[in-house]
Specification:
about 350 residues; Rossmann fold; alpha/beta; about 40% helix; six-stranded mixed beta sheet
């Protein structure tokens, strides 16, 4: 199996001198979800791009293979990122692969343990700051101005180059671009990357639909959120680094960027798992939550069974097991007795 750089080399800024740092990322499944379609009366076909099946469990690996390959080409000794979790996990894994030291700054108490454990086990040097993601990113950018350290957050243009390949894969799998594409929006690099990918790879392009969490929705609200709040920690960002690019993707595609509540996110999160067997992290479900919301509003009244919508699920559910456990009924407790166990199982 080829990683995405080898698969899409001619579309990427690499040369024969670029050492390819890969964990065989990309080629993630595009899954049709017919029970979701039926449950929510969708008048269209819905496919989810399940990015949780990348090597470290999130879409970040697409950008990181590019960013780390270019860092290795430059001979970098250190790379650094601010992270709510997935970027740190990916950077740490690809840094280990490249023999490059990885430095991580995270907001204290705002990172799911599944993600933090990955960064730790891969050997990253991690500092938690008493602040939010935006505070962490500010510090990281200042460090890069003072020290010879390569920044690998999504403002690194090579990250966007790698992430755009998800749009390539969707076009390849469908045989055409979808009519609409729904995606969670946090730091806004991913919606930027998908739109770039569609523009480069397809003459016909989808309407882009981005969704932020209601209390972490600076693009929708039109101002920086100083204290963003949401259960979807991956999009808990009050000042997106790719804010303007996300707005360009929205406007050029004649699309929307809107917000969904935490309750709507968790509802979609549980529906994907319970109806389709697709377990994603909460932030991922913002894309499907947004489609449910917009379908209720009649936004897709002109859609038909030939209309195709794709939705990005950015990370695997095991990234944040605590939310899954809190959202579900806990196991019943029984003595080691057949009748009691059967009774509790409803048999």
């Amino acid at each position: 199996m080829k990683g995405l750089i080898e698969r899409y080399r001619k579309y990427l800024p690499v040369t024969p001198a670029t050492p390819v740092i890969s964990l065989q990322e990309g080629s993630t499944p595009l899954i049709r979800v017919p029970r979701i379609e039926k449950e929510f009366d969708f008048p269209f076909q819905l496919y989810v791009k399940y990015e949780g099946l990348n090597p470290t469990g999130s879409f970040k690996d697409r950008g990181m293979t590019m960013a780390m390959s270019k860092a290795a080409e430059k001979g970098c000794e250190y790379v650094i990122c601010a992270s709510t979790g997935n970027t740190s996990a990916s950077a740490a894994a690809y840094g280990a692969r490249a023999k490059i030291k990885v430095l991580v700054v995270i907001p204290e108490g705002a990172i799911a343990l599944g993600k933090l454990s990955q960064a730790m086990i891969h050997g990253a040097k991690i500092v938690a700051v008493r602040g939010n993601f935006d505070d962490s990113l500010k510090i990281v950018r200042e460090i890069c101005e003072k020290y010879p350290v390569e920044l690998v957050n999504s403002i690194n243009p090579f990250r966007i180059e790698g992430q755009k390949t998800a749009a390539f894969e969707i076009v390849d799998d469908l045989g055409r671009a979808p009519d609409y594409h729904a995606i969670p929006v946090g730091n806004a690099g991913n919606i930027t990357a998908y739109w770039k990918g569609y523009k480069e790879y397809s003459a016909v392009r989808p309407v882009m639909m981005g969704f932020q969490a209601a209390k972490s929705a600076p693009i929708v609200d039109g101002h920086i959120i100083k204290d963003p709040q949401t259960v979807a920690t991956a999009i808990k960002i009050g000042n997106p680094a790719s804010w303007k690019k996300a707005e360009e993707a929205r406007d050029e595609s004649l699309g929307v960027i809107d917000k969904v509540t935490d309750d709507e996110i968790i509802f979609a999160y549980k529906a994907l798992a319970g109806l389709e067997g697709v377990f994603c992290e909460p932030a991922s479900a913002a894309s499907v939550a947004g489609l449910i919301k917009y379908n209720k509003k009649g936004y897709f009244k002109n859609a038909s069974e030939r209309t195709i919508i794709t939705a990005t699920l950015t990370g695997h559910g095991l990234k944040d097991p605590d939310t899954a456990i809190k959202s579900c009924e806990h196991p019943a407790l029984a003595p080691p007795d057949l009748e009691e166990v059967c009774k509790l199982l409803g048999l």
